[in-house]
Amino acid sequence: MSIFQWAQNPWGQEILIRISWDLLYLAIAGGLAFVIGHLVYRAKNPPKTAEVPDIGDAGKDIPEKIVRHSLAARLFHWVMAITMITLLVTAFFPILGIQFNWVPIHWMAGIVLTAAIIFHIIHASFWLNLRNIWISRQDWAEWKQEMEHALGKGEPPPKTDKYPVDHRIYHNAILVTGFGVIVTGLLMMVRVENLIFARNSYLLAESTWGWVYVIHGLSAVGLVGLIITHIYFAILPEKRWITKSMIWGWITKKDYLANHDPERWVVTDKASK
Amino acid sequence: MAVIRDTMAEFDLFQPASIDDALALKRRYGKTSWALAGGLDSLDWFKDRIKRPEVVIDLSAVESMRGIRETDDADGVEIGAMTTLTEVAEHAGILSRFGLLADAASKVATPQIRNQGTIGGNVTQDTRCWYYRGGWPCYRAGGNICYADTPTAINREHALFESNRCVAVNPSDTAPALVALDAKFVIMGGGGEKVVDAEDYFITPAKDITRMTILEPGELLTSIRIPGTWAGARFYFEKVRDRQAWDFPLVNIASAMKVSGNTIEDIRLVVNAVGPRPLRLTDVERQLKGQSVTEEVGQAAGELALLGARPLQHNAYKIPLMRNLVKRAIRGTGARA
Predict the structure, then answer these.
(1) What was the pLDDT predicted at B2?
(2) In this structure, is residue A12 part of a structural domain?
(3) Residue A175, in any domain of the structure
(4) Which of the residues in chain B have pLDDT under 70?
(5) Count of domains observed in chain A
(6) Where along chain B do its domains lie?
C-alpha cells in the first residue's frame, strides 16, 4: 500500500500527483471496522436507558419541547449533508469504476457547500454560543472518563452540556477536513472549466499543486470515515432522539433531563442557546 | 517523457485463432494485456516504452474477425474488426452502397498503412495529443494537468467541443463515416455479445478521462454492422489535413443525406477531430430536415454547428474550417453515391 502517487514531469523530475487511492479503501475499511467493532461492543454491553431524575419544582419552568437546533442550524446541517454526500459520490464513484460526468456536479456541490459553511460561520458567530462546540480541558477530562467507563473502569461521566464531548470532537474533525477540502477545492477549480474562475493551470508551481491535491485527497478520505461513523450513530436506536432533533429542532423534556445537566445547559423558556 | 528506443520492452505474445481464445486471454490477463490489431497505434506506444503491457494478444490469426459479409438486413453488411482499411476502401459492396465509408477509409494515412491498419483499430485508436503520446503525466495519463490547455501550449490540433480537463481529439477518419451510416459495433466480452450504436461507442473525458471508447479491459470489438438504412444515400466526406500525402485530420466531416427533389428528407452529419469523440450534429440535422439544398441553408447549418465551440489558444482556425465543411457537406455533390 502506498500513501502518495508520484509521476515524472517533462523535465524528468519526480512530482507529487495526489494521494494513493489505497487510502480510500483504507478509510472505508476503517469506518466499517469501527462500526462492526462498536456493534460487537454494544451487543456485549447493551446501552442502558438513561434515568430521568426528579428535580422537583426546579423542572416546572422547563418546557415539554426544548429547542436544540434552530431552523437555520438544521437547514445548514441538511444542506451540508446533501452536498457532502454528493461530493463524495462524485469524487469516489468514478474511482470505484462507476463512470459518469462527475466534474460539473462536483464543483457545483462544492460551491453550495462553501456558501453553506460561510453562512454557518456567520450564523454561529453572531447567533449561537461558540463555547457550546469548543472543547475545553474539562471536556477532555470527561471524555477520558467516558472512555474508561466504557472499558469497565471508574465512574460514569457527568451529564453533558448542550453538546456531548464526542459531538464536539466530531464537529472539530469535520471543521478541519471540511476546510481542507474547501480551500484546496476552490484552488483546484482553476484547473477545470467552470463558470466562476478562468482556467489557469500555472497559478501555482507544479510541486505546490501536488500538495493541494494531496490535502484535498487526505481531507476527502478522512470525511469518508467520519461520515460512515456519523450515519451509523445517527441510526442507532439510543441516539435517535438526537437525530430527530436535527429534523424537528426540539427534544423532549424527558430526554433533556435524562441526558443533560440542567445546570450546564440552562433551559428556562421555550428556547435555549 | 518519451524516449524513442526502437526496441520494445519485453512482453509475452499470444496469437489466438478464435474470438473465444482471445477473450479467455483477456480475462486471464486483464489490465496487463493489450489487444493488437494492425499495430499502427500500439507499436508507437510500445517503442516509446510509454505503454508496457505484460501480455500482447495479437488478433491477426482470428479469421472470424476478418472480411466483409452480407447481413440478413437488406443491403446491410458486417465488417470484421480485423478487416484492413484497404479491403474496406476497395470492396465492391461498400463502394456501391456505402461509398461514404469507402471514401473515409481511402483517406486514412498512406497505402502501406491502409494495407496493415484495420477498421477496428482505426475506430479504437488512442488520441494523438503529443503531450499525452509523449508520456507526459497529463490527466489522460493519470496525472492532474492538461499540458495542451495552458497559455503557452501548442494546441493547434486540439478540441473545440466537449473538452473536460483534457482537450485531446479523436483522430479517426472512419469513425465519423460509421456514425453517419448509423453503424452498430459488436463487442464481445465476459457478459457475451453486446451491440451498441456507433455514436455510443465513443466517450468523452467527462465519462472517463483515460479512455476514448466504452471498451472494457476484458472486451473486444469483433465486428461492425452497417444497416441498409442509408445504402445509396447522398454522401459527403472531406478530410482537411496539413499534408495531403499522409496525416491525421485537422477536421473531417461525414454526411449521409436522403434528398427528394431538392429537399432534404433525412440527414446524419458528423464531424471529427474537433472533440474527444465523433460529434454528431443532431441540432443541425433537425433544422435541415425539410429544407432545400442551397448555399444559404448550408451557410446557416455551418453557423448552427458551431454553437458551443470553445477554441483554445491556437486552434481558432478550426471554427471557419468546420463552418465551411458543414456548408460543403450540405451543398456538395457527394464523393461517391
Answers:
(1) 55
(2) yes
(3) yes
(4) 1-6, 333-337
(5) 1
(6) 12-60, 79-124+170-228+236-331
- Which residue in chain A is spatially nearest to B162 when comparing CA positions? A193
Fold of B12-60: 3.30.43
Q: Coil, strand, or helix at residue B116?
A: helix
Contact with chain B for residue A28, Cβ under 8 A: no
CA of A109, closest CA in chain B: separation in Å? 16
Nearest to A159 by CA among A44, A73, A260, A60: A260
**pLDDT for residue B334:** 43
Closest residue on chain A to B1 (Cα)? A10
Kindly state whether B146 is in contact with chain A, defined as any CB-CB distance less than 8 angstroms.
yes
Measure CB to CB from residue B164 to each of A8, A18, A193 and give the nearest one: A193
CB of B161 within 8 Å of any CB in chain A?
A: no
C-alpha cell at B262: 431538392
pLDDT of residue B154: 93
pLDDT at A56: 74
CATH number at residue A34: 1.20.950
In a domain, A106, yes or no: yes
| B150·A201 Cβ contact <8 A | yes
Chain B residues touching residue A99 (CB < 8 angstroms): 203, 207-208
Classify domain B79-124+170-228+236-331 at the CATH class level. Answer: alpha beta
Q: Helices A71-92 and A206-235 sit at what angle, rounded to 10 degrees? A: 120
Name every chain A residue with its beta carbon within 8 A of the beta carbon of B150. 201-202
Interface pTM, i.e. ipTM: 0.72
| Cross-chain Cβ contact A18/B144 below 8 Å | yes
**Which residues form the domain of A218?**
4-46+58-130+165-259
pTM assigned to the model = 0.83
